[in-house]
Amino acid sequence: MRLLSLSIIACVLSLNTYGQKSLGKHVHGSIGLDIATDKKQILIMLKGPSDSFLGFEYKAKTKEEKEKLNKVKNLLTKKVTSLFGKEIESCKAKSPQFKQTFQGKGHSEVQLETYVECPDSVKGKTMEVQLISKFPRMETIHVQLLREDGSVVSKKFKKSKFELKL
Hints:
By secondary structure, the protein is an alpha+beta fold. 26% of the residues lie in helices and 36% in strands. The longest helix is centred in the middle third of the chain and has 16 residues, at 63-78.
């Protein structure tokens, strides 16, 4: 039932992802981060221009570009909780879905969606978002946080690290 409620929340958040449709007009350096919490679960959805994650938007061709893509994919799928601070590191990502979507030759975006299962309730925990420090081409993160109690945080951040109270 919790998974179903988080799925519904995901649909609502995805409709509001900082006013952008997938592969619509985007601004390099501008990322959308949608978060929803429910008891011991966190839903994390991250979306933005590939340039902000990889430094390029075309399909990886060279060995270096393919290594960079694999490194980013690994970080966002297998080590995603490390991007959100000590209180979240003990949680485990469940079924992370990473996707790079292309339109034309030089336009693409990276998307991540994952459920994170924690050993204890996440209510009141602090998420220390460290995306800009790991991906220096990011400049602005548009955050939408939907807490278990129904309260919503919708805010823009430009700091390399910032905290969100879950």
